[in-house]
Design brief:
With 718 residues, this protein is α/β, with parallel strands linked by helices. Strand 4 and strand 5 form a beta hairpin.
Length: 718
């Protein structure tokens, strides 16, 4: 339970989990009112006005697709337009008979025993009744034959009728007929068009899948190829170490890698070898990926970037093939850097949850990675950087020296790191004179770089919402509340009875914390609904510490139970509003008994598994010990409840005062509590006060040292 938290006790007890140290960038000089939309994971966003480096997708695939469709449409239009059948006019058999009688027919052709095509004589074409009709066939010329056609039921019946008409005509005007078996283009197209389209579609799909065109589903034939994005001299990463703030120790570690790549002789002359790899470990949003990008930007060598999930595929052997291909490409461009983000996707412990005889594709991928990193065929000049927030699940073979030689911890920033990060993010904002980055840093314990960026952006949005010219400290305070507690919902309809319960609940938290020695300093108490289910909250500002005593944890439990106890004392009944309070104290009590060895009966033993693997199926203690643990936890919680009940019963008047004031104002601050119920009996310096005192002491020490050195310099000059 030894954690640093920005705590919010509420009817649903809002909390922001612990945080410890470090992230982000160097401050730009120019100031202007700007509102940046949040970036992913805080550590990946714009840096000093630069856009994150992103390779522009190739639009070749979409262009080819468009041109192909347009081309096919034009092709079919031309074919239809130029087809002979379109140029002929449909008539009836009776009109054909009239043409024969008028001696206008030149040729008759029976096509495929279904159609009869008629060509007129040249002198007949000059006749108005034909001429006007045939001119409508533009752009086909008048002489374009055949001119007319009609369908027949059967060739035999047509021949009989035709012979009858022919016999009635003078011999010089009689016309013969021809029989043709013709393959019409449209018929041919309907017969073979499907197969043609199928072939064209197959060619197009194969082109896309082989990587000839961009787009999803590509690379089915190149499925074993690495998907790493390459950044080289043509495609440089613009981020440098100047853009990374709050990670001083981590930067020092990776600077050696950069120095080795730039000037290897400096180390090889002494017999040193380049590290094979470095593992960046830390919570989400602390700047792991950003630091890797800075290494790439500083080193000036080819940089392969990909995610652990890029190796994962449904086909057997693909992951291992991609690993081999990645290292083959890297060796060709050595010296270079390979960065694998979220390496836990392929680096998990082997043998977990495997059926007997099963072939795990992920294990094969990991084996291939292990061999490439430190096998017989390993070449120098390829450095691997990897990032993860789950180091506990990584395979031990991956973590040994010779593979990942260094594990660089990138923790959440302390107050100094947070101040540096705030300076980076406020550098592009137009601020009021009252904004103090030191104070902001002290009010955000547990915040990672991503969360600090979000606070700055929210403050800018809030100021813009109200039409302000600059961003004030009040905007930052509102932004911190927004990030911790969620969106303020003043419009939420709450019954007077519920509001009364919430007021006494939050007053119970406030009074209990006020009169407990080891409780954290109160910042504000609110009964304004926030977030999804929180009807109110009490915000505390914890001291940044890493070790907690039994008394401190016990007082924290009492403070957390203050809301439930206040409901019990005032109303004689309890509500569901203490759900998260109870969840928190239960975890805390079990941690004190089973992890931290803070129980006399259980003794100085800990059942905590740091690897997260040993006790999956079997508990490391007997059933009788489990029963004892449960009994001791209940005793501890009951003791805290009775202690809190006695305290609030004694301070019932103060509880009433705070609750009534909350009902009137909805929000009260620390100075309001001092006015209402007097100063806190256990005054301690806040984190901000300690920080400022430490800085003043350091400045005074530097000043004294400078004064001492001045007489020495004067004496030497004489």
């Amino acid at each position: 339970m030894a954690e640093n938290k920005l705590k919010s006790q509420d009817a649903d007890n809002l909390t922001l989990d612990e945080v410890k140290p470090k992230a982000k960038k160097a401050a730009p000089k120019q100031k202007k009112l700007s509102v940046k939309m949040p970036q992913n994971a805080g550590s990946e966003g714009d840096v000093n006005g630069k856009k994150p480096f992103k390779k522009q997708p190739n639009s070749e695939g979409s262009n080819v697709q468009t041109y192909l469709i347009i081309g096919l449409m034009i092709f079919f239009a031309i074919i239809v337009y130029l087809t002979r059948s379109v140029s002929t006019l449909e008539i009836t058999s009776k009109r054909f008979e009239d043409m024969m009688v008028s001696h206008d027919v030149k040729d008759v052709v029976i096509v495929n025993e279904k159609n009869v095509e008629i060509t007129l004589k040249e002198e007949a074409l000059q006749n108005k009744k034909y001429r006007d009709e045939l001119l409508k066939r533009e752009p086909f010329p008048l002489t374009q034959s055949p001119h007319y056609r009609f369908q027949i039921i059967s060739p035999e019946s047509f021949k009989q009728d035709f012979d009858r008409i022919n016999k009635s005509l003078p011999r010089e005007h009689q016309v013969g007929y021809k029989i043709e078996q013709r393959q019409d283009f449209m018929q041919w197209l309907f017969s073979w068009g499907f197969f043609i389209l199928l072939a064209v579609g197959f060619w197009y799909m194969m082109r896309r899948m082989s990587g000839g065109m961009s787009g999803p589903g590509g690379q089915i034939f190149n499925i074993g190829k690495s998907r790493a994005a390459l950044f080289d001299q043509d495609n440089k990463v613009k981020i440098t170490f100047k853009d990374v703030a709050g990670l001083d120790e981590a930067k020092e570690e990776v600077k050696e890698i950069v120095e080795f790549l730039k000037n290897p002789s400096k180390f090889t002359n002494l017999g040193g070898k380049i590290p094979k790899g470095a593992l960046l470990v830390g919570p989400p949003g602390t700047g792991k990926t950003l630091l890797a990008k800075a290494v790439a930007g500083e080193a000036g060598v080819p940089f392969f970037s990909l995610s652990g999930s890029d190796f994962v595929e449904m086909f057997v052997g693909v992951g291992a093939a991609r690993v081999r291909d990645l290292f083959r490409q890297a060796k060709e461009k050595a010296p270079c850097i390979i960065f694998i983000d979220e390496v836990d996707a392929i680096g998990r412990h082997r043998g977990r949850g495997m059926a007997i005889g099963a072939n795990d594709e992920r294990e094969n991928t990991l084996n291939s990675l292990l061999v490439e990193m430190d096998g017989f065929g390993t070449d120098s000049g390829v450095i691997i950087l990897a990032a993860t927030n789950r180091p506990d699940v990584l395979d031990s073979a991956l973590m040994r020296p010779g593979r990942f030689d260094r594990q660089i911890s990138i923790d959440k920033p302390d107050i100094k790191g947070r101040e540096q990060i705030f300076k980076v993010h406020v550098g592009s904002l137009k601020l009021s004179p009252d904004v103090d980055t030191k104070k902001l840093a002290s009010q955000t314990p547990g915040f990672a770089g991503a969360e600090i960026m979000n606070v700055c952006n929210e403050a800018a949005l809030i100021a813009a919402r109200y039409g302000k010219e600059t961003i004030s400290m009040d905007d930052f305070q509102a932004a911190i509340d927004r990030v911790i507690g969620g969106l303020e919902k003043k419009s939420k309809i709450i019954s007077p009875e519920e509001k009364l319960i919430v007021a006494y609940h939050e007053a119970g938290h406030a009074v209990a914390g006020w009169f407990l020695e080891h409780a954290d300093p109160l910042v504000k108490v609110s009964i304004v609904p926030r977030g999804v289910a929180a009807l109110g909250y009490a915000q505390y500002l914890p001291k940044e510490q890493f070790l907690y005593t039994t008394e401190q944890l016990f007082d924290e439990m009492c403070m957390t139970l203050g809301g439930r106890v206040a409901e019990d004392i005032v109303f004689g009944r309890i509500s569901t509003g203490a759900l998260s309070d109870l969840e928190r104290i239960t975890k805390m009590a079990y941690s004190m008994v089973t992890i931290y060895g803070m129980n006399d009966k259980i003794g100085n033993v800990s059942f905590f598994d740091s690897k997260g693997s040993e006790y999956q199926f079997n508990k490391p203690y007997s059933e009788s010990t489990a029963q004892t643990i449960d009994e001791e936890v209940r005793k501890l919680v009951d003791k805290a409840y009775q202690h809190t009940k006695a305290l609030l019963t004694e301070k019932r008047d103060q509880l009433e005062v705070i609750a009534q004031e909350l009902l009137k104002r909805e929000i009260i601050f620390q100075q309001d509590l001092e006015t209402l119920i007097g100063k806190r009996p256990f005054e301690k310096l806040t984190t901000y006060q300690q920080f400022m005192a430490t800085e003043e002491a350091e400045e005074e020490k530097k000043r004294q040292e400078a004064e001492k050195s001045e007489p020495t310099a004067e004496a030497s000059a004489e």
